[in-house]
Write a structure and sequence with these properties.
This protein is of the alpha/beta class. The chain has 2 domains: about 60 residues, no CATH class; about 190 residues, Rossmann fold (3-Layer(aba) Sandwich), CATH 3.40.50. The protein contains 9 helices and 10 strands. The strands form 2 sheets. It has a 7-stranded mixed β-sheet. β4 and β5 form a beta hairpin. α1 packs parallel to α3, α3 crosses α4 and α5 crosses α8. It is globular, with a radius of gyration of 20 Å. The C terminus is likely disordered.
Length: about 280
């Protein structure tokens, strides 16, 4: 593994500027310390000696940029992560949404899809999946493809199974997948009403209107300016009385548009939109 010198702020800013100009991805508002740590990891993993060499490699190899993007943006994920959240969603949020004739849900920054399958299972067990359309988005095409495939390593399933048990589901997680060599493949009927699309929370505008938006364990990587932008985007994308769920270590309390939301569950970081001029259509 190649040793690297300490990365300077100037070098990071130059790299971010290059990426924005060349690939139109804007990392200016990502939390600096987190971005720097991930750059350091990329230099180590790919045996790249410095930022200058990394920039040259990115310039000469667009395919490598996709790998770079995955390393920068991918988050540690698992199914039914924080099971208490999923219980709260099932027990208190879905009974409210169940009265609607149809549901629209956005899983933002869904990574490799574990959250999407968790959500689909919760909806199926609540007999709501058949009337729900789910939008699953991420900035990275490669992880979106993993979600569409629904194929995950066997080694990941022990923690997923334990999370599902703690969630207190109706059966066993294995009811929803089959084994194939060293992997498991989830039942494709779970994602019949799921659209996987590339979406950049930094630069894109709102998609549509939703009854529920999940964006969990993502904003911890954003600086306050980008957090404000994301919450404003989500607020604009929610129906009145719609719900927003963020990660267990995140809050919208300090965001400019936080007064548009009611805290539905402080413990599980679930908020309900209470201010908007738009009516549900």
């Amino acid at each position: 593994m190649t040793e690297t010198n300490e990365i300077t702020i100037k070098e990071i800013k130059h790299l971010i500027s290059f990426i924005k100009t060349t690939y139109r991805f804007d990392f200016n508002n990502y939390a600096f310390s987190s971005f720097k740590r991930r750059i350091e990891r990329i230099l180590a993993v790919y045996s790249i000696p410095n930022i200058e060499s990394l920039t040259i490699k990115l310039q000469q190899n667009p395919v490598f940029f996709e790998e770079f993007l995955r390393e920068i943006t991918v988050n540690t994920t698992e199914m039914f992560r924080a099971p208490a959240f999923w219980r709260k969603l099932r027990n208190d949020v879905l009974p409210i949404l169940a009265h609607y004739p149809s549901l629209r849900i956005w899983s933002a920054a869904c990574s490799s899809g574990e959250e999407v399958y968790s959500l689909a299972i919760v909806l199926k067990e609540a007999d709501l999946l058949h009337k729900t359309k789910i939008l699953a988005t991420d900035i990275n095409d490669l992880v979106l493809q993993k979600g569409m495939n629904g194929t995950y390593p066997n080694r990941n399933m022990e923690v997923n199974e334990k999370n599902y048990q703690r969630f207190e589901g109706k059966g066993k997680l294995s009811d929803y997948y089959s084994s194939k060599e060293e992997n498991v493949v989830f039942d494709k009927t779970l994602i019949e009403n799921v659209s996987f699309k590339k979406f950049d929370l930094v630069q894109n505008e709102q998609y549509s209107k939703f009854d529920l938006i999940l964006c969990r364990n993502v904003m911890i990587y954003f600086n306050p300016e980008l957090q404000n932008k994301a919450i404003e985007l989500f607020g604009n994308s929610l129906f009145m009385k719609g719900f927003l769920a963020v990660g267990e270590k995140e809050t919208i309390a300090f965001c400019k548009s936080s007064d548009n939301f009611l805290t539905f569950s402080a413990e599980e970081r679930i908020y309900q939109k209470i201010k908007d001029n738009a009516d549900r259509i």
